[in-house]
Amino acid sequence: MRLLLEHALLETGVESGVLLETEGELIKTVRVLGQSMTFSGEASAENVRFPRLAGETDTVPGLTIPGFANCHSHAFHRVLRGHTQRGRGSFWTWREQMYAVAAELTPDTYFELARDTYAEMRATGITAVGEFHYLHHQPDGTPYDDPNEMGRALLAAADEAGIRIRLLDTCYLAGGFGHPPEGVQLRYSDGDAHAWAERVAAFGDPRVGAAIHSVRAVPRDQLPVVVEAARGLPLHVHLSEQVAENEACLAAHGVTPTRLLAEAGALGPLTTAVHATHLSDDDIALLGHSRTHVCLCPTTERDLADGIGPGRRLHDAGATLTLGSDSHAVVDMIEEMRAVEMHERLASRQRGHWSALELLAAATYDGHRSLGFEDAGRIAEGQRADLVTIDLDTIRTRGTGATAETAVFAATAADVTPVTTPASAGTGEGHR
Ligand SMILES: [Zn+2]
């Protein structure tokens, strides 16, 4: 397939008149025809100089970028949208509402919710999702006949929606430091980390990765077991989203959650720390030196009144930023990018912490890498042709220019349309 892109985000920045040739699901060649090319949405003047292309090339107006990677998702939380944004409360009161939904879900309703959430993601330009999945068992904690039935429902949902998935199968063993799981948490727990690892090993699907729910939910002595079982796989973990988690961890173990994870060998380039909101200077240094990914979820963090994570300081220390829509109060990766910069402005009363290109890297290439999809997220030879286009002629984007700044600060998810469907969404195995 040949595509003539009016404008495209390449590794060098935004270029105009970009001719792509794809083979199967991969980009075979990328040629920049240049600014001088006139673009009418039809075969261009430049095309006339390549007569063999005439009639064979699909033209794509607008600004084409790599598909977004949504690196932190709990698909079923989507059902809370519009229902938990009333009254007062905190993260912990919201969690009670979320638990009430979790208690009721079946494999069928879990599938339906995820399918619709992933369809919303696809419609807004997301081509890969990291699903942080901890709802494993029946309401009383008994495994289903297939102990991975709930996880398989998510894989099937991703297949049906046409999105590539990394299923981050989550270890959850405790209701808090020194507290066994109770109530709906029984659905989350495998009993101990060895049993979790056995269940995950039995999954037999290359799309499965691993997660530690949090240091609240996986006791200190169980952490190394998870780390060992996850070796070579993406490993994600909720980290210091709440001050209360830090205080409880310090009281129980005398160290911060970040230090606890570091001592368990859980940090590194294959690991993603999700939220990383309330960190000490030492925590930031540990995450940076270990080259851990840090996934901010700004629209959820503000919805839950979590706080503002030190994104720029983490980046400067060596951590790599990625983004997720988490609870799906909003599904709009452009809004997530924009919010990273805007929140830091509000916190610091200074503008210009992040460039648009840095934020686009977080939402695309770096995000895909953190999910183990190292051949996606760039418009470059050999990369997957998972492309989406930002319409530059809507009431929001008209006159803003074919620039990275338009993609981050002017457009919204409503301006994004998929160009191609990930051809191997159903078999999106990692390449590592
Ligand atoms: Zn989460």
Just name the CATH architecture of the largest domain: Alpha-Beta Barrel
At the fold tier of CATH, the topology name of the largest domain is TIM Barrel
Low-confidence stretches: 38-53, 423-432
Give the overall shape, derived from the CA principal axes.
Answer: globular
Distinct small-molecule ligands in the complex: zinc ion
How does the major sheet shape up?
Answer: 8 strands, parallel
What string gives the helices and strands in order? EEEHEEHHEHEHEHEHHEHEHHEHHHEHE
Rg value? 22 Å
Please, how many helices? 15
Domain count: the total is: 2
Strand content: 15-25%
Counting DSSP E segments of at least 2 residues, the number of strands comes to 14
Distance between the terminal alpha carbons, to the nearest Å? 27 Å
Structure classification = alpha/beta
CATH class of the largest domain: Alpha Beta
Helix content: 25-40%
Order the strands across the largest sheet as they lie in space.
Answer: 5-6-7-8-9-10-11-12
Quick recap:
By secondary structure, the protein is an alpha/beta fold.
